[in-house]
Design brief:
single chain, 455 residues, Rossmann fold, four-stranded parallel β-sheet, 15 strands, globular, binds pyridoxal-5'-phosphate
Length: 455
C-alpha cells in the first residue's frame, strides 16, 4: 500500500546533501563560454581572478565534474535553515478541486526570505578562505543584498552593496536589514565610482537599474585591494550552489516514491530554477527519466519567450564578460509599473542552452494574474509568497486546473522561492487596482536587439 503523504516532507539534518550537483557535466551541448569584452575570446581563469574569488572561478569554468563537495563550514551554516520542507499543497488542491497532486519546495524559511542565501553563504565562505577583506555586489529589490549581508557577517567580511536607487528609496526596510547585518548600502548610480558619475552625467535624475549597479560594484571590487565581486544569480557557480534545492527535493520525493510529471520555477536570472531542476534535468539528459520543466517569466521582461539567444553584456556599463544567453539587450529596462521582480534582461547561459535544445519550456505571464495567484495561495496555504515566487504558483495553478478539466492525476512540483513581506507596496497596488500589465511591443524589443554586440 502506498504510504500516506504528510503535509510537510522533512529530511533529517543527516540527509542534507554533502555535494552540489553540476548539471553542465551531463550536458552534451555545454553552455557557451564567457567572453572577454575586449578580445572576444573565452575568459581564462587568470582574467576572471581580479573579479571573482579563485575557488569560484574554478567552479564557474568547471563543466566536467558532476559532484562537488560542500565544505563543512557551509553545510553547518545550511543546518540553520535547511533541509527546507517540501510541502504537499493539500489545501490548494482542495480549493482548486483538482485531481493533481501539488508540492512546493519552500525556501522562505530564513531571515533573508529567499533561496539566495544558499549561494551567498558559499560565496562568502570562499572569499574568507582566500583571505579577502570583503566583497561588493549589487541588489535590486534587495533579497540578494540581504542574503549576502547575513553571509558576510557570519564570516566577518566587509560587504558593500550598491542598491538600485529606486529600491533604496522605496524599500527602506530591506536596506535596514542589510545594515543590521553590518553591510554598507549605497544608492546606485552613485558619485562613488567613475561609471556611476558617468551614468549620472548622461542621465541626471535616473533611478538606476541592476545593470548600472553591477557596473559600479565590479568597479569598486577591481579597484580596491582585497575585494572581489559576487553575483546572486545567472552565473554557473550560483546554479551549482542552488542545486541543494533540487537535491533535497528529489530526496524528499524519493522517500515516498513520488515521480513528478511537471516541475515549475520562476525565472529571473535562472538560479532557483536551475537549482530546483538540476537533478531532474540530469536524469532527463542521461535518458533515465522524463519530466516537463517549465520556466515562468514576467510578460514585461520576457527573456526566454521573446529574447534573442546571443552573446550580450550582463551590465549596462559593458565592463563585465559577455555571456551567450536569451537576452532582451543589456539596455532593456522593464516598465516602471512592473512590480513583480524578475527584471534582469538576460538569463543563465546553462538554462539558455537547455531551452535552446528543447529540454524545457517557458511561459510569460501578466503581473495582475501573478498577484491573483499569490493571494489565492496565501489564503489557503498560509504563506505570503514573494511576487517572484508567485509566477511559479500561477503556472502550477494553471496546470492543476487543466488536470481538473481532463481528470488527469498529474504530480506538479514548484519552487516557492521566498516570502513577500517586503513587497507590500506591490500588493497594495494590486488591492487598490492600480496595478497594470505591460507587454513590450515588438518594435521596442527590436530597438533593443539592434544594440546587441556583434559576435
Ligand atoms: C531573486 C529571486 C528570484 C529570481 O532569481 P533567480 O536567480 O531567477 O532564481 C526569485 N524569487 C525570489 C524570492 C528571489 O529573491
Amino acid at each position: 500500500m502506498a504510504k500516506e503523504i504528510p503535509y510537510k516532507i522533512y529530511l533529517d539534518e543527516s540527509e542534507l546533501p554533502t555535494q552540489w550537483y553540476n548539471l553542465r557535466a551531463d550536458m552534451e551541448n555545454k553552455p557557451a563560454p564567457l567572453l572577454n569584452p575586449a578580445t572576444k575570446k573565452p575568459m581564462t581563469a587568470e582574467e576572471l581572478a581580479p573579479v571573482f574569488c579563485d575557488e569560484l572561478v574554478a567552479q564557474e569554468l568547471d563543466e566536467t565534474t558532476p559532484y562537488i563537495d560542500i565544505p563543512e563550514e557551509i553545510r553547518s551554516f545550511y543546518k540553520m535553515y535547511r533541509p527546507s520542507p517540501l510541502v504537499r499543497a493539500y489545501f490548494l488542491e482542495k480549493k482548486l478541486d483538482t485531481p493533481a497532486k501539488i508540492y512546493y519546495k519552500f525556501e522562505g524559511n530564513n531571515t533573508s526570505g529567499s533561496h539566495k542565501l544558499n549561494s551567498a553563504i558559499a560565496q562568502a565562505y570562499y572569499a574568507k578562505k582566500q583571505g579577502l577583506k570583503g566583497v561588493t555586489t549589487e541588489t535590486g529589490a534587495g533579497q540578494w543584498g540581504t542574503a549576502l549581508s547575513m553571509a558576510c557577517s557570519y564570516f566577518g567580511l566587509d560587504c558593500k552593496v550598491f542598491m538600485v536607487k529606486v529600491s533604496y528609496e522605496q524599500k527602506p526596510f530591506r536596506r535596514e536589514v542589510m545594515r543590521t547585518y553590518g553591510a554598507s548600502v549605497t544608492p546606485s548610480p552613485s558619485e562613488e565610482t567613475v561609471i556611476g558619475r558617468k551614468i549620472l552625467a548622461a542621465h541626471p535624475g535616473t533611478t538606476g537599474s541592476l545593470g548600472c549597479a553591477i557596473s559600479e560594484a565590479v568597479e569598486v571590487a577591481t579597484s580596491n585591494e582585497g575585494y572581489r565581486y559576487v553575483l546572486g544569480s545567472v552565473l554557473n557557480q550560483v546554479l551549482l550552489h542552488q542545486s541543494v534545492i533540487g537535491l533535497e527535493t528529489k530526496a524528499a520525493l524519493d522517500k515516498y516514491d513520488i515521480h513528478p510529471d511537471i516541475i515549475i520555477g520562476c525565472a529571473g536570472g535562472g538560479s532557483n530554477l536551475g537549482g530546483l531542476i538540476a537533478p531532474f534535468m540530469g536524469e532527463k539528459l542521461r535518458g533515465e527519466a522524463d519530466y516537463r520543466i517549465i520556466a515562468v517569466e514576467p510578460q514585461s521582461c520576457p527573456s526566454f519567450t521573446r529574447g534573442r539567444f546571443a552573446y550580450d553584456f550582463c551590465d549596462t556599463g559593458m565592463i563585465c564578460p559577455l555571456a551567450k544567453m536569451y537576452t532582451l539587450g543589456c539596455d532593456y529596462i522593464p516598465a516602471p509599473n512592473h512590480a513583480g521582480g524578475l527584471r534582469f534582461h538576460g538569463m543563465s547561459s546553462t538554462l539558455s542552452q537547455l531551452y535552446h535544445d528543447g529540454y524545457m519550456e517557458a511561459v510569460a505571464v501578466p503581473q495582475t494574474d501573478v498577484f491573483e495567484a499569490a493571494e489565492e495561495f496565501a489564503r489557503v496555504e498560509g504563506i505570503l509568497p514573494a511576487p517572484e515566487s508567485s509566477h511559479a504558483i500561477l503556472q502550477a495553478i494553471r496546470e492543476a486546473k487543466k488536470c481538473r478539466d481532463t481528470g488527469e492525476e498529474k504530480t506538479i512540483v514548484f519552487g516557492l522561492t521566498g516570502t513577500g513581506y517586503f513587497d507590500m507596496v506591490a500588493y497594495e497596488k494590486f488591492h487598490d487596482q492600480l496595478m497594470e500589465n505591460y507587454r513590450p511591443t515588438d518594435a521596442e524589443l527590436q530597438e533593443s536587439f539592434a544594440k546587441l554586440p556583434q559576435i
